[in-house]
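Support reply, case 0932

Customer input (verbatim):
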Amino acid sequence: MVGAEAEQYQRHLKLLQNFGTEPLLIGPVGSAAALKLALNQLIASLTTSFALSLAFIQRQGVDVDVFMQILRDSSLYAPTFDKKLQRMLDGNYADPNFPTKHLLKDTELFISEAKSQSLDLSSIKGVRQILQTAVKMSFADDDYSSLFSVIKEWGEAIGE
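Our regenerated output:
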């Protein structure tokens, strides 16, 4: 994703192709960064929602395989759910592909930028609180799927 004027993009396309085979011009400078923040906001929100549903069905005694079978066949499914499922079930957040602290940073940046656009930030502020708790629980350098442990241990994590 590239933020540039069309002429700049064309002039530097060969260089940009060293970073990815098909660089995509998003718009003026800053627009690619905004798109990246929007995508990472979705990662944070989707992962938090999935973790909450997973913890809920486990506490209700619903078979995880049945839950996943139904979810995979629905329009609610996102491939990231399967990518993070085993980590969540195992509580193994080592060797992150994206650490929790980086998702928190991007969430903070998103909130800052979205606030300047007068958007309702209620939902992402709740996600930020979970990310902040994950960092306090020593998951900063672990995979962001560690949000699952925060959700499962919420009362203990906030001192209740």
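We compared this against your earlier run and they match. Two observations from our side: DSSP finds eight helices and two strands in the chain. The two ends are 44 Å apart (CA to CA). Please reopen the case if you see a mismatch on your end.
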